Amino acid sequence: SCGSTASDITAASTSQIYEIDKHLEAPRLMETAVGLEQQLFPGTRMAVNYVDSRGTHELRTVDINAPYPVPGTLPPGITPALAAELGEPVSPLIRPYGGDEDIYDYQSDGIYKQTQILVNVDSTVGKWLSLHARYSWNNAHSDTDGLVTLASDPYDFTADWGRSNLDIENSLFLFSSISAPWGLRLTPFLI
C-alpha cells in the first residue's frame, strides 16, 4: 500500500474560486471596410473588399492568485516584513491573496486585430446556370480567444499575443446553382 488514498490526494489539491472582475466591460469590435465591385463582362461581376477589425475589452480568464513568476520574490511594494506580517513566507509558492486556492477572475482587457481581403466572382451562364467563387485572405492576432482562454502568465499578457483561433489564412469556396426541371435547383459546392 502506498499510504495515500484518492480522498487524501483530492483533499490536498488546491480549490478553485471563480469571480467576475469589478471592471468587466462588454467587448467592443470596430470594423472598417472598403470595397470595389466591377462588371468584368456581361453576366460576370467581381468584388474586392478590404476589412480591418479591432477589438478591445476582449474576454479572458486570469488566475489572480497564481504564484509569483520568480521563485522567492515578492511583488513591487511588498517587503519581506509585510509578507511575514500577512503570514506568507517568502517561498516559491507565494500568492498575492495567500492560501493555496486558484482565484479565476473573468476580465475584459484583451486585444484583437484582424485584416481580411475578400474576393468574390459571380457569373451567370444563361437562365439555368450560375457560378460563384469566394476567396478570402485573413490575418488575425489576439492575446485572448475568449473566456475559455487562461493567460499563460497572469502577470504579463504580452506572452499570449499571437495568432487567433479566427486566423484561417486562406480559404476558397466554389459553388454553382443549376436550374433543373420541375422547379428543382441543384447547388454543388467545393470548399
Report on this model:
- There is one protein chain.
- Helices cover 7% and strands 49% of the residues.
- With 191 residues, it is mainly β.
- Strands 1, 2, 3, 4, 5, 6, 7, 8 and 9 form a nine-stranded mixed sheet that branches.
- The longest helix is centred in the N-terminal third of the chain and has 7 residues, at 6-12.
- It starts with 5 loop residues before the first helix and ends with a strand.
- The relative contact order is 0.19.
Q: Share of helix among residues?
A: under 10%
Task: Output the structural class.
Answer: mainly beta
Query: Helix count?
Result: 2
What is the total tally of β strands? 9
Which consecutive residue ranges, at least 5 long each, have pLDDT under 50? 1-13
Give the SSE order as H and E letters. Answer: HEEEHEEEEEE
Describe the biggest sheet? 9 strands, mixed
Strand content: over 45%
- Mean pLDDT, all residues: 83
Shape: elongated
Over all CA atoms, what is the radius of gyration? Answer: 27 Å
- The end-to-end distance, rounded to whole angstroms, is 57 Å
Produce a short descriptive summary.
This protein is mainly beta.
